[in-house]
Amino acid sequence: MKNNRMITWLLAVSVFLSLFPTQLSVSHAAEVAPVKEFDLTKLYSDADAISSWAYTAISKSTQNGFIQGSNNKFNPKSTITRAEFTKILVSMLRLNISADKVISFTDVAEKDWYYPYVNVASKEGIMTGFNNKFNPNDKITREQMAVTIIRALGIKSSKQAPVIKDIKSVSAWAKADVELIVSFELMLGDNQLFNPKDMVTREMAAVVATRAYDFKNETKASEENPAKEVNNEVKKYIQATAAFLQKAVTDPVVASVGGEWTVLGLARSDVKIPNEYYAKYYANLEKTLKEKSGKLHNVKYTEYDRVILALTSIGKKIDNVAGYHLAEPLADFDTVIKQGINGPIFALIALDSNQYEIPLVKEVKTQTTRELLIDFILKREINGGGWTLGSNATQSDPDITGMVIQSLTPYYESNANVKAAVDRGIAWLSKAQKADGGYSSMDSMNSESVAQVIVALTSLGIDPHRDPRFIKNGHSAVDALLGFTTPGGGFYHIKQGGADNGGAKPGDVDLMASDQAMYALVAYDRLINGKTRLYDMTDVK
């Protein structure tokens, strides 16, 4: 009896779907907040007709009580009317349908089932009519739905303009809102086509309604965590981590741990560091170059990239360090790419840190150019968006995807292929984010992964603490990173009790993790204070 009552209640909660057709990307359509799915065949006799990409959204929408079926059917492929859409919208927004009468549409009477929904939607300024008519039985198009959803959610602007191949087919009055709704991934298209005049189907409506519902809740959660509070917390941890690093690394040398990344993080922060600290590093670098006759490594040219970044961050020249030009090895493209994708990534980051020219070296077989580096990276994109370390891998990785985006940022506005690839990478990072706001690599939740994502997002001007795409269950990427802090300063690689992935042991304070967390927090602090991005060091005097 209890199960029968539950099914009856769910059916009752399921008689009013209606929304918009969205040729939704399957991968994103399945991306909704975690809700335990139930067997829709027990609710709808036509459940088998529901597309796989819409199943989860219909399940969640039904449980949340803002989508219904009719006569034991969901009719997923049917189009919806303005009246049906209004009911879904009002239910999704949890508006009070007992509002005072305000409408005077000649085609909406108080006896009509949709009257209270049209009335409150009109009162809130969400739905409007034309020539004193609401046209409740007209079908709703995708562009109409986009305008209404943007208005209902109060979205005003986006920092990234999406690629919409058929944007010229969108009505002038809907163009801005269509661009907004695509940029926030509330509606997607098929192969970057929005199909603005297509009618909305019920299953498509379910997916978009669920996204809008999640967006509303995640935005509310971020608003309840004021930016000022997190900004102060970030500054506090920058200070604490800077103190930790100076104690842990008293004599910075040429090394991936205890060297350049520590120097970079400290130098790009607002923390006052004694000049003697950087002088020690420079002296150690000169000594190392002399001992190695200028050859930091035969294959790993990221050694030069890392040193270039450290020197640039402290205002030192790179073209004559102990008599060596540190960018000269990067002219050898064939050696740069021997490290796989890491080589081009960090070559670009280093060279663009202060707009350095690539030296011309006659002796090399293939002269490096920025175009060759970019092309190498773009060709390594994983199907579905994102990048990973291996050349034959099929699954993207958050660390490498974040680093790639960091390297391609200077070309985002000027290179259409870069922009499209980066946008796909951002979409993948949003989808890959875990429920606590963090990221997993090699099956382990770790601080370095989320640190690289934060640096990537901030490089594009995306706020990793406020942007709804990077808030899951009220937890942002910044929240996740701060969850790895330790009482005495520094950061864990993996928290106590987490899965060991071969790096520092879970629960151990880790210098590499602390370095990356430091410069990620600095990157965020620079973003919210209107400074140049972490790796744009043209501001260094």
TrEMBL record:
Domain SLH positions: 41-100, 101-163, 164-223
Cited Gene3D superfamilies: 1.50.10.20
Keywords, ordered alphabetically: Signal
The keyword Lipid biosynthesis is annotated on this UniProt entry: no
Keyword Signal assigned: yes
CDD domains, per database record: ISOPREN_C2_like
Signal peptide (from-to): 1-29
PROSITE patterns, per database record: SLH
Source taxon at top rank: Bacteria
PANTHER family assigned to the protein according to its UniProt record, in alphabetical order: OUTER MEMBRANE PROTEIN ALPHA-RELATED
Protein name: SLH domain-containing protein
Organism from which the protein derives: Cohnella abietis
Record lineage: Bacteria, Bacillati, Bacillota, Bacilli, Bacillales
